[in-house]
């Protein structure tokens, strides 16, 4: 597929997601990076967003709970270029009933070439990157060209 560029502004749209056994880890990371995160627009799946907002005071837009469709909502937002970064603390040792949704979310993040942090180490690398506070160009699939070839 052909690609094109999109400009990601200095203020990023960041999605925050955590499986049940990783919510404490994500909360700790958000608290440690509260100042940096406050400069961005934050989104989260339902339960995670509620916990993070309550505990940190950050303004977080909460979507549906992951198992109720929140992962799919985030996937749609990625396709619509409304999410620039995905921080998803997933638990590789526990199965979840909505595992197909989780895989779909990670797949769509890869398709649309957005940075993904899956644990505290990668989240730390992302949040401390100079690119987090700069306007950057990102290659994305050229969906318009894809459609034009098929019509």
TrEMBL record:
Enzyme class: lyase
Coiled-coil region(s): none
Keywords from the named record: Lyase
Catalyzed reaction equations: dihydroxyacetone phosphate = methylglyoxal + phosphate
Gene Ontology CC: cytosol
Membrane-spanning residues: none
Entry-linked InterPro entries: Methylgl_synth, Methylglyoxal_synth_AS, MGS-like_dom, MGS-like_dom_sf
Molecular-function GO term, any one: methylglyoxal synthase activity
Lyase in keyword set: yes
UniProt function note: Catalyzes the formation of methylglyoxal from dihydroxyacetone phosphate.
Record protein name field: Methylglyoxal synthase
Organism: Enterovibrio norvegicus FF-454
């Amino acid at each position: 597929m052909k690609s094109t560029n999109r400009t990601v502004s200095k203020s990023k749209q960041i999605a925050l997601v955590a499986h049940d056994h990783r919510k404490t880890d994500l909360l700790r990371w958000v608290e440690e990076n509260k100042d940096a995160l406050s400069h961005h627009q934050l989104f989260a799946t339902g339960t995670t967003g509620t916990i993070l907002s309550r505990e940190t005071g950050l303004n977080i837009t909460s979507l549906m709970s992951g198992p109720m469709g929140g992962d799919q909502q985030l996937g749609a937002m990625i396709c619509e270029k409304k999410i620039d970064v995905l921080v998803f603390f997933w638990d590789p040792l526990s199965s979840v009933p909505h595992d197909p949704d989780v895989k779909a979310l990670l797949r769509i993040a890869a398709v649309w070439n957005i940075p993904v942090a899956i644990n505290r180490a990668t989240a730390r690398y992302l949040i401390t990157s100079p690119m987090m506070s700069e306007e950057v160009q990102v290659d994305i699939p050229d969906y318009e060209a894809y459609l034009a070839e098929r019509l």
